[in-house]
Amino acid sequence: MVSFLGQTGHFALEQIAAMGRMFSFLIFAIFLAFRRPAKIYLIIHHIKTIGVDSLSVVALSGFFTGMVLGFQGYYSLRKFNAESWLGSAAALGLLRELGPVLSAFMVTGRTGSAMAAELGTMRATEQIDALDSMAINPVKYLVSPRIIASLFAMPLLTAIFDVIGIFGSYLVGVTLLGVSSGSFFAGMEKSVVFHDVYSGFVKSLSFGLIITWICCYKGFHAPPMATGVSQATTESVVLSFVMILVWDYFLTSIML
Amino acid sequence: MIRVVNLHKSFRAQKVLKGANLEFPSGKITTIVGTSGCGKTVLLKHLNALLLPDEGEIFVDGVDITKLPLNELYEIRGKFGVLFQGAALLDSMTVFDNVAFPLREKTKTSEGDIKNKVEGRLEQVGLGGMGGKFPAELSGGMKKRAGLARALIMDPEIVLFDEPTTGLDPILATGIHQLIARTHAEFGFTGVLVSHTIPQVFDISDYVAMLANGVIEAVSPPAAFRTSENPVVQQFIHGKTEGPIQVL
To answer: How far is B86 from chain A (nearest CA, A)?
Structure first.
């Protein structure tokens, strides 16, 4: 019994210490992001890898999510003779919830895993040590630019997801199921307010931060071997997904 | 000069260094030899504080680098060049960009001067005209030479070589040793070399230190090292499985 309690306590302390290390890493990376010299060329490079390179997968998933929303929304709203509110339901669902969360999932799978694998490989092949030995802070060089880039790229990707999603929903609702085009857009215009767009924007910003933070941390501290890199990649994706959903709950409850 | 005092380092329950003491004289090449896994690379990585000791001090030109804040540590690291075991070239960059990297990041040198300096260093290590290749396109020996060019590009006072010839054929290994000797004669840096390729490494060393059982067992010039009566040194030089070093 004493041994069990001891092990539980040891496990709890280790988890708290690990969380502390993760938060320290984030704060250090943000602190270094504001220190000169600014790595503008790296930020632009990572906006491309996070944003442009994820564009196709985000657009595709947005399109199909919107179309599914069109079908499901029509099916539910028809029970209340409220098909004309399809545009409103789709837009609110996408702007407030599905856009930020699903595009964050896509970026995690497409770019976050690659970040963790790349940094993990750099750790295993001593490239991170090489930077350190050249008196170049590896956190400033490898992590801070990615964090800043994600803050630019994620809201833009989410906005694209939202627009394409609404278009997909319009295609299904109006073209396939016969909802009037006027009522689709009129419902959207009546119900969507700035706060809905704003809450989606805040979510996408914070999800961008969560993804780069977790994926960079896991990659940066990956055990220096092949299994260590694969383990870090898996952990980074799973933890990012969980943290996105947990943080989404908190933000939704605050910003409702 | 670098001075290591009573260095202790453990990784979880495994004690790697148990009170190592050693001095690396300025302008000389000191080679640390020892069996595989005895802690040579761990000791080397302490010299520029890539690893921090559990106990003990490391003095670089009289400054204890184990207790320095990061910005002061980075100033000290500016004195070092490091050739890593696998060369540790940044694989997203070409050879030219790898060698130019410290100049671009740490100095305000113009691109024209960088081009001249990098191409000069690449010529010195026998990689003239290879600057456009990526590390993945290079052989093991070429990677080591590119790593050496990068280690020397900032004209460092101290260069650390982590097993520079491991995995290379004997001819290429001799070539790398000659390259180290030639660049040392030209630049006069303080060299610290980790290796277990004896006796070839004796030819380029001013001093040889034997690391075994977590401590420095012997330090002497190569000629004296060969004839040392220390049983640890004798076992290592003659490759005996029986002796004070527990092998299996």
So the answer is: 7
What was the pLDDT predicted at B171? 85
A116 φ, ψ (degrees, to nearest 5):
-60, -45
- Phi and psi at residue A41, in whole multiples of 5°? -65, -30
Name the CA radius of gyration of chain A, rounded.
Answer: 21
What residue type is assigned to position A220 of the chain? F
The total of structural domains in chain A comes to 1
Q: How far is CA A112 from CA A21, A41, A115, A150, in A?
A: 20, 20, 5, 10
Which CA distances in Å does A123 have to A232, A251, B9, B57?
11, 34, 20, 26
Would you list which residues of chain B are within 8 Å, Cβ to Cβ, of chain A?
45, 48, 50, 70, 74-75, 77-78, 80, 82, 84-86, 88-91, 101-102, 105-106, 154, 160
| pLDDT of B167 higher than 80 | no
- Mean pLDDT per segment of 10 residues, for chain A of length 256 residues? 86 92 95 87 95 95 96 92 90 95 96 96 94 94 96 97 96 93 91 93 96 97 91 96 96 89
CA–CA min distance A137, chain B (Å):
8
Spatial CA neighbour of A140 closest among A251, A254, A37: A37
> Which two structure tokens, joined as six digits, stand for A97?
């919830």
Whether A135 and B77 lie within 8 Å, measured CB to CB: yes
**A/B interface, count of CB pairs below 8 Å:** 48
Give B114→chain A minimum CA distance, Å: 17
pLDDT of amino acid B60: 94
Instruction: Say yes or no to pLDDT of B248 above 70.
Output: no
Residues B148 and B164: their CA atoms lie apart, in Å, by 9
Mean pLDDT of chain B: 91
Q: Can you name the residues that pair with B191 across neighbouring β-strands?
A: B29, B159
Task: Summarize the confidence of residues B147-163 as an average pLDDT.
Answer: 92
pLDDT at res. B247: 66
Strands B80-83 and B158-162, sheet pairing: parallel
Omega before residue A145 within 30° of 0, cis: no
| Residue tagged 């290796």 (tokens) | B195
Q: Which residue has the tokens 């993990």?
A: A120
> What are the backbone dihedrals phi and psi of residue A186, each rounded to the nearest 5 degrees, phi first?
-65, -40
Cβ of B91 within 8 Å of Cβ of A135? The answer is no
Q: What is the mean pLDDT of residues B214-242?
A: 89
Domain extent at residue A124: 2-255
Contact B55, B5 (CB under 8 A): no
Q: Does A137 touch chain B (CB under 8 A)?
A: yes
| C-alpha A122 chain-centroid distance | 23
Q: Which amino acid is residue A198, in one-letter code?
A: Y
What confidence tens digit (pLDDT) does each residue in B40-69 have?
Answer: 999 999 999 999 999 999 999 999 999 999
pTM confidence score? 0.88
Give me the residue label for tokens 């690291």.
Answer: B77
Query: 3-state DSSP call for residue B211?
Result: strand
